[in-house]
Fold Spermidine/putrescine import ATP-binding protein PotA.
Amino acid sequence: MRGPALCPTARAREPLLAEFIRFDRITKFYGPLCVVENLDLGIGKGEFVSLLGPSGSGKTTLLMMLAGFEQPTSGTILVDGQAVNDVPTHKRDMGVVFQSYALFPHMTVGENIAFPLEMRGLGKAEIADRVTRALDMVQLSAMRERRPAQLSGGQQQRVALARALVFEPRVVLMDEPLGALDKQLREQMQLDIRDLHRRLGLTIVFVTHDQSEALTMSDRVAVFNKGKIEQIGTPRQVYDEPATRFVAEFIGETNLIEGVVARISGGEAAVRLASGAEIVSAVSGGVAEGATVYLSVRPERIELAEARNAAHNCLETEVTDSVYQGDHLRVELAAGSHPLIAKLGRRSREFEPGTKVFAAFSAGDCRVIAPPDGQRQAAAS
């Protein structure tokens, strides 16, 4: 095995290098149906990028095109500067982990992991050495002689991961690999995969529909909707600064408040609600005065008080429901015609329905969602 790639003590990965993978104007049709439309995306060497979106949004199709299982209708896929559209799957040097694990049931754990090495014609001694190190990496050395049916779901997933890594691929592709696991095991595997990524410096492209999973594991998240990327950024960026209504609603839970931009000044917009109240919000561009917009406020950013406080924004509301959910208290509110949700600390007082309270949040915790292109152009004209 060349170098320390599978050594658990390998040093933490270096900062991201130059772009390693490039999707250049990729379009994919299945008959008349367009599933990926004119998509551009670059991924750095050593980067962990999650393709996040609902079923049918195009994320898995893009991954399958990168793996070579599907061909783009148009556009070019480049890896390390070389086009791979016409390169067969087995020559792309990519490890793939599927949700179904795809382990051979008649083989032992060790034989499953050794299989891709045997297909590459490595010698027995080197295969044995690589399999040993791969098993150590995923902490399954004691399971070497067991068959997949004798393993738990989490252990099978570790075997599938070891098999994808043992031949030291230049890219690891994962398609919903944790979807079949229970919540506790899935969360542990998320941390384990993130740790392997950091220790080994892997380039990982990860497909998921689970927002929490993408936020936990990724360097960047590409949010897919109807064959396009609506936003790409760090987990904090896509959560705290959603660029579209879809992103705001798909990633986590949010409050969307409709209003009209009254004025813009110094990176903030004053948005007038139907009630006449104004909310001051952070704005990142693309919004004109007079435009109809939505304001996105995460429930955990809202504080409740019996009297107005010094926060930038303070809406008079009425409690409609209050539910204790263990780690937080979920409070449903009505602010005129606008329903709101607040998530308070677990030790917060519970509110009876009908209680009048003020919902307060800062301008920095409230984001203007840019209007659709038609509205934006009309407002600017």
User: Anything to note?
Assistant: Residues 122 and 187 are 35 Å apart (CA to CA). Residues 19-240 form a domain with the Rossmann fold fold (CATH 3.40.50.300). The longest strand covers residues 19-30. The radius of gyration is 25 Å.
